[in-house]
Design goal:
This protein is of the alpha+beta class. Helices cover 34% and strands 29% of the residues. The chain contains five helices and nine strands. The strands form two sheets. The protein has a seven-stranded mixed β-sheet with strand order 1-2-3-7-8-4-9. The chain has a two-stranded antiparallel sheet with strand order 5-6.
């Protein structure tokens, strides 16, 4: 009887922990993709924020930035990080299994991502009110995204991703 109770308690704890872990970060569903706007191809939702993945050209990216600017509240910070090259991310949708129970590679090619998070002091205090958000938009200057055509709204900060600097630094080590 004692073994049965221990086994039952272990199983209940496992199921509860699995459900909590799944609730912490889940893949975007079709409704989330539609709500994220044109060009969204997937993303992740967690208790304190979300990350959406997008594919599109410069015009669609500029439209996305304009829509972000229109819905921002006071105290929300937006940082645009310009990156070089292409980006591939794990597709949040279920990956098919092979015959050996391994997961098939299931990647998305993306042009930009938008990550919205709560301020760290909000999270550390256990408050998930998120009246203010930190928004980071990573954009990969490749494919159909053209640097000269970007239209960054005022109030957004812009940073370099560092890929070009690291490449130049690596050239210096060859001499």
């Amino acid at each position: 009887m004692a073994r049965f109770l221990v086994l039952s308690a272990s199983l209940a704890a496992f199921l509860l922990a699995a459900n909590v872990a799944q609730a912490l970060t889940v893949g975007y569903g079709q409704r989330d993709i539609v709500e994220a706007g044109p060009g969204c191809v997937g993303g992740w939702i967690s208790a304190h924020g979300n990350t959406a993945y997008y594919r599109g050209d410069t015009e669609l990216f500029n439209t996305h930035l304009a829509s972000l600017a229109a819905i921002l509240s006071d105290g929300t910070s937006v940082t645009i990080i310009l990156r070089s090259g292409e980006m591939h991310v794990d597709n949040p949708e279920e990956k098919p299994q092979t015959g050996f129970a391994d997961q098939e590679q299931n990647e998305l090619s993306i042009d930009w991502s938008t990550k919205k998070t709560c301020p760290s002091d909000d999270v550390m205090n256990g408050r998930c009110e998120c009246k203010q958000r930190n928004v980071t938009v990573d954009v990969w200057i490749a494919n159909d995204i053209r640097l000269r055509e970007l239209s960054i709204p005022s109030g957004f900060s812009v940073k370099a991703g560092g890929e070009i600097e690291r490449f130049i630094d690596s050239l210096g080590t060859r001499n």
